[in-house]
Design a protein that fits this description.
By secondary structure, this protein is mostly helical. The chain folds into two domains: about 5-90, no CATH class; about 100-205, no CATH class. It has helices at about 5-25, 30-45, 50, 55-75, 75-90, 100-105, 110-125, 130-135, 135-165, 170-185, 185-190, 195-205. The longest helix has 28 residues, at about 135-165. The relative contact order is 0.08.
Length: about 210
């Protein structure tokens, strides 16, 4: 691929990125300006003749990688939409897939990916391109990984609630579990409102 072809590919990727970000219901309003500023910066670097002439292949690749970080690291319906459009446009853009990492390691790389999977997987797994990519066995395994992730997290929260203390070694994990249950709207499934209030009190009173 020539330098010009590579730049054209990235600019088309930017168009898809911008279109989905502007219409997004999954990306919060505080984050959207950052993503749009990133695409503005990328376009400026790749359309300004004086800047383009100074860019080498590594610098161009860095611009592409920066643009793709979110789409490579998240699990969501809009992420699948982004990559579907990339495929439809026949753009030679390499994808890193958190779900394949989860299948290989039996866990999610981080809590954000766990949250995304818990919120969106039931819909994602009905998408034709996803069903083409993952076997029935894979889909069932991801179901299981999500269920086990949820069970481990509620186990940590209930243990802290029972002892009314957060062990120092579990503090970061506790915070991740609280974020997971808040973002996925799962507290009502396992706890009373009083118990949730007690968890927040334990969190506030934690002494390092």
């Amino acid at each position: 691929m020539t330098k010009i072809e590579n730049i054209e590919k990235i600019l088309k990727t930017v168009e898809i990125h911008e279109r989905i970000v502007r219409k997004s219901t999954e990306i919060d309003n505080a984050t959207k300006p950052y993503f749009l500023e990133l695409s503005k910066f990328t376009k400026e670097c790749l359309t300004n003749e004086s800047k383009v002439s100074k860019l080498n292949s590594s610098q161009i690749k860095s611009l592409e990688n920066e643009l793709l970080i979110y789409w490579n690291e998240t699990i969501s319906l809009e992420t699948e939409k982004f990559w579907t459009e990339i495929v439809t446009e026949k753009l030679d853009v390499q994808r890193k897939e958190p779900l394949k990492f989860a299948l290989d390691k039996n866990r999610f790389r981080n809590v954000e990916q766990g949250i995304g999977a818990r919120k969106y997987w039931n819909e994602i797994k009905t998408i034709e391109s996803v069903k083409d990519k993952f076997s029935i066995t894979d889909i069932l395994k991801i179901d299981q990984i999500i269920a086990e992730d949820e069970n481990k997290r509620i186990g940590i929260l209930k243990k802290c609630l029972a002892k009314r203390v957060i062990p120092k070694s579990q503090y970061l994990k506790f915070g991740e579990c609280m974020a997971y249950f808040t973002n996925c709207g799962l507290f009502n499934k396992y706890m009373t409102e009083k118990e949730v209030d007690e968890l927040h009190e334990i969190w506030r009173n934690f002494k390092s």
